[in-house]
Amino acid sequence: MSIGIDDISFYTSNFFLDLKSLADVQNIEADKYYQGIGQERMGIVGADEDVVTMAAAAALPLLDSCDKASIDTLLFATETGIDQSKAAGVFVHGLLGLPSRCRVVELKQACYSATAAVQMACAIVAREPERKVLVLASDIARYDLTSSGEATQGCGAVAMLIGSNPRLIEIHPQSGRYTEDVMDFWRPNYRSTALVDGKYSTKIYLKALKQAYADYIDQGGARFEQLDYLCYHLPFSRMAEKAQTQLARCSENSSDAATRSAMVAPTLTYNRTIGNSYTASIYIGLVSLFDHAAEDLSGKRVGFFSYGSGCVAEFFSGTVVAGYRDSLHTQRHQEMLEARTELTYTQYLKFYNFEIPADGGDHCMPEQTTGPFRLASIDQHKRIYCAR
């Protein structure tokens, strides 16, 4: 019995800032961002958008071809939690009308936790092959204004149905892991923006890749030359290039730069235009591969490297299932991106500086999103969501 991703869809905010606008304000060339870090735009959430509304919107298309009653677990991965106690997934459970006979849990470990959710989901399905697990990863990457991380901000959510005999990709059981206690990126409870040591984080990312891949090989995994494509966690798109060079070196592979680039190029398209989406980025990369690969991917082996600062990393792989194209949501994804509204730099600052009311009063949120769900109000510290 094979287990893996039966369906997948992603969603991002209705607003974006072109990084040229940021570059103009900073009096630098836009290519510092376009070419230097491989980013073109950053997704910006409206006042009535958050990780819940994006996750619910990402999951909505999956329910068109799935019996809700078959979903008995919802795993929500995020590092942009909205409550220290209640799982964000419980709000999504209600918005989607999922059955009450369903467990819901939120997972956290920086950008890695969606992979933990996928592996847990595969184990659950192995016990009950007739059931499906809904995995949601949703995040808003936010850094201080004028910081080195500002241009890598973004947001997005991905929804995956994990099931037996999947229609999209079979996940292989071999998996390599690596954990080390480091402080390369963190966000204390009292801060709304993250702290990051960029150069150190890149160094740890590449070290974790080397160690996780070595463990993956020890577990009987495929070698670099046996992989057709690679999906990496993408804090910025150029990171994939650095990772490919490191992985080829680890495996003593002599492929040239063009060949290595071709293995990741289709996975980067969406990330370039929405920015960093933390837990969701690696799997939005998979969606991008499905939606943009020129060749038929049936039977192709895809490697995955998931990294979460702090740090936890995992390397694994999967094989694309024949007929996968019949289950994609490509047109929906492209129409969503084309419908977004571009912000001026001044408008971006207004969005950035908006603060969620914290006084316990009754506050209606400005109606800004055009998505299917919105944060309608906050009443006595309670978040009230609704469908549009």
Gap from first CA to last CA? 40 Å
Let me know the average pLDDT: 96
Strand arrangement within the widest β-sheet reads 5-4-6-7-1-8-13-12-11
Q: If you compute it from the alpha carbons, what radius of gyration comes out, rounded to the nearest whole angstrom?
A: 20 Å
Main beta sheet? 9 strands, mixed
Into which percent range does the helicity of residues fall? 25-40%
Poorly predicted ranges (pLDDT <50, ≥5 residues)? Answer: none
Described by the principal axes of the CA atoms, the overall outline is: globular
Q: Tell me the total number of β-strands.
A: 17
Can you tell me about this structure?
The protein is an alpha+beta fold and 388 residues long. 31% of the residues lie in helices and 27% in strands. It has twelve helices and 17 strands. The strands form four sheets. It has a nine-stranded mixed sheet, sandwiched between helices. It has a three-stranded mixed sheet with strand order 3-2-14. The chain has a three-stranded antiparallel sheet with strand order 15-16-17, with helices on one face. Helix 3 (51-59) packs across helix 4. The protein is globular. The model has no long low-confidence stretch (mean pLDDT 96).
What's this model, at a glance?
By secondary structure, this protein is of the alpha+beta class. Helices cover 31% and strands 27% of the residues.
